[in-house]
Specification:
This protein has 10 helices and 13 strands. Helix 3 crosses helix 4. The longest helix has 22 residues. About 55% of the residues are buried. It binds oxa(dethia)-CoA. Oxa(dethia)-CoA (UT7) binds next to helix 2, helix 7 and strand 12.
């Protein structure tokens, strides 16, 4: 058997798709006891997008994937793997990856969903990278897509104001290492954090029942203050670790693209690495927390605003339910 050569994987296209309907903080004031000032000050969120009833994660996921393929100049039949990080799949099974495969006509692909909550995109990117660098796949789609509005308790002001719907996708393929590509990734999981952020019912532990529905147990439960503490420590720590271990310092970073959960968590991570505001991608004001979709959506917005060019040093980081967290450092290789 011929020896395998290790390749370098890079992002070669990005795309996104969001629902048209905006839900502003003023709209939320009519639903729960809250106010615009509190939400903006504590989270940085001004509005979020909400999907129409009956629209599943596959719909925006497929649109984001099509946009990413167009950006990369890739045809659907060239895609050999579809990874879909999501906590809001269309159905518990089958995989949303398959539903998207059919919608986009990726006739030569295999695929699966990946559940790592807000870190799902980074875990998916690392999976794509491993497949490509080992020579098992040539073009991989990683599609973070969420309809978070489908699992929110609209009577709980602690959580319903935070999340939004949307999808972001990237094409990952082998790139000429002199152009850049993925340099390093650190990913972590710690199940002792499960008690702070989860959905109680609907899995195998607690099946759907009249009680589970009446008690809103099919929705996001979050102990906000606890998660906040761990998120600051996790995101700031892992970002600093990956920047240091690759010999970079704050000024080397062209764009820091963090998971968008709370502006104050982002600022804490930014301070730890020594970054100016101009080095940070912020979309939380427009989209809220879109879980696995937030990083690819922020990459897409940054790209369309002309904030990313070939060779730029990009640092991604995330923290989410699990707990899961991680950071990836790469040089930009998309047009
Ligand atoms: O993406 C996955 C990971 N998730 C995260 O990273 C989220 C981490 N957590 C957070 O971002 C923050 O903890 C929240 C934004 C969820 C909450 O902010 P906080 O500064 O930690 O507020 P708190 O929970 O400590 O609540 C402070 C006060 C409370 O009132 P009392 O008890 O001090 O009288 C809350 O009842 O704010 C009250 N409050 C609200 N007031 C107006 C909570 N939610 C609201 C609201 N509007 N929506």
């Amino acid at each position: 058997m011929a020896p395998r050569t290790l390749l370098t994987a890079g992002i070669t296209g990005v795309g996104m798709s969001i629902p048209e309907k905006r839900l502003t903080n003023a709209d939320l004031e009519k639903i729960v006891e809250t106010n615009d000032e509190w939400i903006v000050e504590r989270t940085g969120i001004r509005e979020r997008r909400i999907a129409e009833e009956g629209v599943g994660a596959s719909f925006h996921g497929a649109k984001a994937a099509e946009a990413a393929m167009e950006h990369a100049g890739a045809k659907p039949e060239e895609i050999d793997l579809i990874v879909v990080p999501t906590v809001t799949p269309d159905m518990v099974f089958p995989a949303t990856a398959g539903l998207i495969q059919e919608m986009i006509g990726a006739t030569n692909a295999w695929g699966f969903d990946l559940e790592a909550a807000c870190s799902g995109f980074l875990f998916g990117l690392q999976t794509a990278r491993a497949q490509i660098e080992a020579g098992h796949a040539k073009k991989v789609l990683v599609i973070g897509t969420e309809i978070m509005s489908s699992i929110l308790d609209w009577t709980d002001r602690n959580s319903c104001i935070l999340f939004g719907d949307g999808a972001g996708a990237v094409v990952v393929e082998a790139v000429d290492p002199s152009r850049g590509g993925i340099i390093d990734a650190i990913n972590r999981i710690d199940g002792s954090g499960a008690k702070f952020l989860h959905q109680k019912a609907g899995g195998s532990l607690m099946k759907a029942s009249r009680e589970s529905v009446e008690n809103n147990l099919h929705t996001v439960f979050q102990a906000g203050r606890d998660v906040y503490k761990y998120a600051v420590k996790g995101m700031a720590g892992v970002t600093k670790e990956i920047v240091d271990r690759n010999g970079f310092t704050g000024p080397d970073v062209d764009l820091f693209v963090p998971h968008q959960a709370n502006i104050r968590i982002i600022e804490a991570a930014q301070r730890r690495v020594g970054l100016e505001d101009s080095q940070v991608a912020i979309t939380i004001d427009r989209f809220g927390n879109t879980t696995a979709a937030s990083i690819p959506m922020a990459l897409c917005v940054a790209n369309s605003e002309g904030r990313l060019k070939e060779g730029d040093l990009v640092v991604l980081c995330a923290f989410g339910a699990g707990f899961t967290w991680g950071s990836t450092v790469l040089r930009w290789t998309a047009p």
